[in-house]
Design brief:
Strand content: 15-25%
Oligomer: single chain
Helix content: 40-55%
Number of domains: 2
Shape: rod-shaped
Strand order of the largest sheet: 3-2-7
Length: about 100
C-alpha cells in the first residue's frame, strides 16, 4: 500500500511540474466533493427512515386545543396545524418550546 502511495505521489509531482498543478488538485477536489455529497445524501436517507415510524402518528391537531411553539431568543411564535413529528422545530439555532392552550 505504501509503495502504491509513493508511486501516486511521484506521478502527481511529475504531472504537476510539467503540466501545471491544476491537473493534480482538480481530481482531488472532485473526489472530496463527491464524498461530501454522497455523505449528505446518506444522512437524508437515514433521517427519512427514522421518521417513518413517527409518520404513522402524524395528523391534525385536535380542535379543542391550540399548540404553539415559541422561540426563546427572538420571541417568534409558530401555530401548529398538523403534527408531522414529535420533535419540536428549530429557530435561532435552538429548539422551540411547546405551549398548549386548551380552548373552551
Amino acid at each position: 500500500m505504501l509503495l502504491l502511495l509513493l508511486a501516486a505521489v511521484a506521478i502527481a509531482a511529475v504531472v504537476g511540474l510539467n503540466f501545471g498543478w491544476q491537473w493534480v488538485f482538480a481530481p482531488l477536489l472532485a473526489y472530496a466533493l463527491l464524498r461530501w455529497s454522497l455523505a449528505s445524501l446518506r444522512v437524508l436517507v437515514t433521517d427519512g427512515r427514522q421518521l417513518g415510524a413517527e409518520a404513522a402518528t402524524a395528523g391534525p391537531v385536535g380542535v379543542d386545543e391550540r399548540v404553539l411553539y415559541w422561540c426563546e431568543e427572538c420571541g417568534a411564535e409558530l401555530l401548529l396545524l398538523v403534527r408531522g413529528t414529535a420533535r419540536a422545530p428549530s429557530h435561532c439555532g435552538q429548539r422551540m418550546h411547546e405551549r398548549t392552550e386548551i380552548r373552551n
